[in-house]
From TrEMBL:
Keyword check for Nucleotidyltransferase: yes
Gene name tied to this protein: cysN
Name used for this protein in its record: sulfate adenylyltransferase
Species of the source: Tenacibaculum polynesiense
Membrane-spanning intervals of the chain: none
Superkingdom, natural source: Bacteria
Length: 415
């Protein structure tokens, strides 16, 4: 079955949690006790409708304030597709949470309140989806019932977003505009008869039509070794396998591979998944490889197809989203975690502060503050094998860890 990871985004009160709750309700994905709790809580609040946001806002503070603070992951399935939705917060101070939620998503839903139109947070969320190379974006113009289902208002918002998209350097993104009322279910799971001028799909129909295998451009195969498998049993006395998760592209028995950092070459002898053996493994598979040659491989090494080696670097240029209350400054030292490899890193330069409304960059800022995005240069203590983020998402990202607090301070996307 198709598995689709989706992120939601939008300004405060645009209706993200309500939209997800409505999808869960209309697809009959809510348990009886959850539905009963929503009905009772809605009555306590004096609502004459079901408050579907209660289906996702799990923290006490979220329920009290009626906002989303943390990233909530919601799982549900239809006969066609299994979905994982990251419900991300809309407040500007939680931009880091939005980046976290969207970083693993294959598609994104950006909500816009039809009454307010495009606001500052819309720019920010659209920019982040561009930065993270999310290929399929739905702009859901919500609360259409509060503007009398105005086609003119919908087209005004559509025009503003299309203008933003024209200023982006990432032009492979597909943007779909859908007018909805999340509260009443118009164009959420089923087409709405009240918006007769709209001829497209509902949100769920559109998502079900997406092919997860073609959403992301094929990247080169990257297989970071998590552990070396030596069973030490009589049946598998000579077995030596390399376990990990395959990223980027498929790999097959007989493929010539190169092991990094040693640059030793061999061929794939077998591919195992539990007690099954396969001729080929697809990207995203957690597998166990054996090679034709008995080579020295340990945790942290990377197996790639020969001729498709990543860059070996000790200097990085990257775009960083800063997630720490302590600002990022030049000359500061951090731990860098790239995949399963760790190293020490030093910030050598903060090149620019990126403005998330697509208006350009501020050159040579003194620091990056919480939730700001900037271009930086780093030196690392040992050689890393990297790709640019646009070529390979999994091998083109890293995190910076504060050595004094062990907090994750920033997430980087390699240029």
């Amino acid at each position: 079955m198709n598995v689709l990871k989706i992120a939601t985004a939008g300004s405060v009160d645009d209706g993200k949690s309500t939209l997800i709750g409505r999808i869960l309700y209309d697809t009959k994905s809510l348990t009886d006790d959850k539905l009963q709790a929503i009905e009772e809580k809605s009555k306590q609040r004096g609502f004459d409708y079901l408050d579907f946001s209660l289906a996702t806002d799990g923290l006490v503070a979220e329920r009290e304030q009626g906002i989303t603070i943390d990233v909530a992951h919601i799982y549900f399935s239809t006969p066609k597709t299994s979905f994982i939705i990251a419900d991300t917060p809309g407040h500007i101070e939680y931009t880091r949470n939005m980046v976290t939620g969207a970083s693993n998503s294959q598609a994104s839903i950006i909500l816009v309140d039809a009454r307010n139109g495009v606001v500052e947070q819309t720019y920010r969320h659209f920019f982040i989806n561009n930065l993270l190379r999310v290929k399929d974006v739905i702009v859901a113009v919500n609360k259409m019932d509060l503007v009398d289902f105005s086609e003119q208002k919908f087209n005004e918002i559509k025009g503003e977003i299309e203008y933003l998209a024209s200023k982006s350097e990432y032009q492979d993104q597909k943007i779909t505009f859908i007018p909805i009322s999340a509260l009443h279910g118009d164009n959420v799971v089923s087409k709405s008869a009240r918006i007769d001028w709209y001829n497209g799909h509902s949100i769920l129909d559109h998502l079900e039509d997406l092919d997860t295998q073609t959403i992301e451009k094929d990247a080169k195969a990257r297989f970071p070794v998590q552990t070396v498998v030596r069973p030490k049993t009589e049946e598998y006395h000579d077995f030596r396998g390399y376990a990990g998760k395959l990223y980027g592209d498929s790999i097959a028995v007989g493929d010539e591979v190169t092991i990094l950092p040693s640059a030793t070459k061999s061929k794939v002898k077998s591919i195992h998944f539990f007690n099954q053996e396969y001729q080929e493994a697809q990207k995203g598979s957690s597998i166990n490889l054996t090679l034709e040659d008995d080579v020295n491989i340990s945790r942290g090494d990377m197996i790639v197809k020969s001729g498709e080696e990543p860059k070996a670097v000790k200097q990085l240029e990257a775009t960083i989203c800063w997630m720490d209350k302590t600002p990022l400054q030049a000359s500061e030292k951090y731990y860098i975690k790239h995949g399963i490899n760790d190293a020490q890193a030093k910030i050598t330069n903060i090149t620019s502060l990126v403005k998330t409304d697509f208006s350009g960059e501020e050159t040579a800022p003194s620091q990056l503050s919480l939730n700001e995005i900037g271009q930086v240069s780093l030196k690392v203590s040992k050689q890393l094998f990297v790709d640019s983020y646009k070529d390979n998402k999994s091998n083109g990202t890293f995190i910076l860890i504060n050595p004094r607090t062990n907090n994750t301070s920033g997430v980087g996307f390699i240029n």
